[in-house]
Amino acid sequence: MITGGGTGLGKSMSRRFGELGANIVISGRRKEKLEETADEFSKLGINVLTCPGDVRKLEDVELMTSQAIDKFGKIDGLLNNAAGNFISPTEMLSPNAFKVVIDIVLMGTWNCTSTIGKEMIKNKKGNVLSIVTTYAWTGSPYVVPSAAAKAGVLAMTRSLAVEWGKYNIRFNAIAPGPFPTKGAWSRLMPPGFEDFEDGMKNKIPMKRFGERHELENLASYLMSDGSAYINGEVVTIDGGEWLAGAAEFSEMDKIPDSLWKAMAARRKKK
Fold this sequence. Notes:
Mean pLDDT: 91
Low-confidence stretches: none
Number of helices: 11
Strand order of the largest sheet: 4-5-6-7
Shape: globular
Helix content: 40-55%
Number of strands: 7
CATH superfamily: NAD(P)-binding Rossmann-like Domain
CATH topology: Rossmann fold
Distance between the termini: 29 Å
Largest sheet: 4 strands, parallel
Strand content: 5-15%
């Protein structure tokens, strides 16, 4: 099962899993987007099930889990990919904005991991992979809710790798650097501040952003039996960015207050 599997990088990883022969369960809040993706996958010969739902709601996760088991008999792997984020000065964030990110990223991961993990315990086998960030351990300005939530996911990954290893369940994480997707970056970037991308790219030792197939291949390896002895690890795939300088969004210091206010106003309209 892939949460947030209908769009963006989640969709890319789901497609690759399916191309390699896996039965795919994709979940997300937008039913129409999931169905659109499933139709695309089906034309490629991928066996796919859509499970609309909100990972923040335990009852939705329980329903998605039962639907997947009814269809395929069991769940061998879980990719915790669903995420939410705001780029904003922390003093401008409301308590609700902070809570939204924590609920999606941390509580959503917990809801899926605990619910599906119990089924994996019954089967004495499973594989849980979570998408985190390098600022889960370095921290970063302007994304405090996301940094806090991803740090929690990383701690959960390492803790359960030890606790549930006895059930033959593996827990690992991937910390991607910048892998631009049209939807995510258009929501995150300030209007009229497109040059930020060039500044971020120049901070990366390899002087480029990640390409989707690179993330797809790493995720596929960590979800496969070829990595059966890897447990409790976080694999960074960022071209060396975090080693060159922590705090991914530190460049945001250059954004004037007027643009921050414009971004806040744009979010309120949605």
